[in-house]
Amino acid sequence: MIKGIDHIELIVQDVDEFVEMFRKMGFELLTRTTHHGGSAELRLPGQNQPIFEIHKVTGEENIGMNHIAFTVDDVQRSYEDLKRKGLEFEKGPHLVPETGRTIASFRDPDGWRLQIVDAKRKSV
Q1: Which residues touch 24 (CB under 8 Å, ≥6 apart)?
Q2: pTM
Q3: Which of 5, 42, 55, 89: disulfide with 106, CB 3.0–4.6 Å?
Q4: Which domains are seen in the chain, by residue range?
Q5: Each residue of 76-87: pLDDT tens digit?
């Protein structure tokens, strides 16, 4: 039985840019290694949090992920906090009627889409 996410591996051009972005979002840097030409592992504080393993693109690998949505208590408040810390959003908080969730979208340093989303769904 699957119990949760252990880690999510992201293949990137610049590990340092990603470490900086994730630390602004509240992630703790767990380790840095020379694995895959340079890597870092980060995790949000608290129990049962998945680890993000970030490593530099090498060999025949492709940079990539589709998107990851991070749950927050209040998208508007989180959006304002992250903007104050220097993250740039491509679209501010807005309700997605199809899902009943408020989201805000931004891009990582390589241009891939990330979101913050309200944990609670609204009736639409």
Answers
A1: 82, 85, 86, 87
A2: 0.69
A3: 89
A4: 7-56 (3.10.180.10), 67-118 (3.10.180.10)
A5: 999 999 999 999
